[in-house]
Amino acid sequence: MKIPVIFHPRQFVHQPIYEWAFGEKLVHPETSRRAENILTTLERNPEIFSIQIPNAIDVNNIHRVHSRKLTELYKAAELDLAEDKTFYPSVFPRRDVTAGNPRSINHAGYYSFDSGTPLTRTTKEVAEWSAACAYEAAMLVESRKVRMAYALCRPPGHHASKDLFGGYCYYNNAAIVANKFKTKSKVVIVDIDFHHGNGTQEIFYKDKQVLYISVHGDPREFYPYYTGHSNECGSGLGEGFNFNFPLPRGCDGQEYLRVIDCSVIPLIKKFSPDLLIISAGFDTYKEDPIGAFQLETHHYADLAKRFADLNLPSVIIQEGGYFVDKLGENVSTFLQSYKL
Ligand code: Q9C
Ligand code: ZN
């Protein structure tokens, strides 16, 4: 059985050129060349990977996770922005004293938390295709046609919460999948992106059906700064179902895998989920321009073996990873070692 790889060519249309960060205009790391590199690498192994286009997603599946207002804002961008125009939110009002109007693009900052995540005419469409990839991968796994599927989600998702976009993310693809399954089953989301998935954590913080575990760069030093500390454990009924493992700059493959073996895997086993969702970022790679860990390509094989050994139906969701020249190889290594 081949590994399904879900991607829609319209996702290439999303081409953020720069971001504002640290008071500077920087080249945007989340380039469409990322998806190109992943696709061309996987296409070289047609006996292993079967590349498929997703069906459109029913927007109700998005709105079980995200507010209508967030979509309304993307709709405003679609209607109001000229073809070549890119809107960067730069005013972020205090939400406790201000209301946002999602029909006005000038209020984009109400629904965003950084200025690295631009809106364009096509944001709504591409974010929907990205979510559609995740959803389609989940449907394939649910149908039991396959035990594992890979969604080439771009834009990524794990920083987006109910009504906030940011961190290059517009809709939370992993959360949309988890939400679909959580009424019937216990779901674990393991987030191995270099950055803490603040959006995913927030969405399921009070939820005992969805266990969220993230391993990431220490937020005292790294984006998203405000969340991802080890004392964030969940609240209410969700208390004890959220785990963060912040690691220091320079963390290498061996140290990383020790955390996986000693902490992450035992927690998953104890929870005994019915479904495993992996928020698979590859910005932990040693050459990543914005990550600060030291993983090498072969460590993605080691990682995949650990998760595959759990023997759970699995949906692998693409998140970050910005060293374009090795991104496809890292993804391919991970997927090919994920033997269920
Ligand atoms: N130029 C994901 O990996 N900007 N998002 C940091 C560095 C935010 C990363 C500034 C990084 C967000 C999905
Ligand atoms: Zn990341």
Summarize the structure.
The chain is 32% helix and 15% strand. The chain is of the alpha/beta class.
**How do the strands of the widest beta sheet line up side by side?**
4-1-5-10-9-6-7-8
The number of helices is: 9
Helix-strand sequence = EEEHEHHHEHEHEEHEHEH
The level of helicity is 25-40%
Total beta strands: 10
Structural class: alpha/beta
**Major sheet description:** 8 strands, parallel
- From the spread of the alpha carbons, the general shape counts as globular
Uncertain regions: pLDDT < 50 for 5+ in a row?
A: none
Radius of gyration: 18 Å
Structure overview:
The protein is 32% helix and 15% strand. The protein has 340 residues and is α/β, with parallel strands linked by helices. The strands form two sheets. The chain has an eight-stranded parallel sheet, sandwiched between helices. A hairpin with a 2-residue loop joins β2 and β3 (24-27). α1 crosses α9, α7 (253-271) packs parallel to α8 and α8 (297-308) runs parallel beside α9 (324-337). The mean pLDDT is 98. The site of zinc ion has 7 residues, from loops.
Outline the secondary-structure elements.
Elements: E1 3-6, E2 18-21, E3 24-27, H1 33-43, E4 49-52, H2 59-63, H3 68-80, H4 123-142, E5 148-151, H5 173-181, E6 187-191, H6 198-203, E7 210-217, E8 242-247, H7 253-271, E9 275-280, H8 297-308, E10 314-318, H9 324-337
Parallel strand pairs: 1-4, 1-5, 5-10, 6-7, 6-9, 7-8, 9-10
Antiparallel strand pairs: 2-3
Helix pairs in contact: 1-9, 4-5, 7-8, 8-9
The structure holds N-{4-[(3-aminopropyl)amino]butyl}acetamide (Q9C) and zinc ion (ZN).
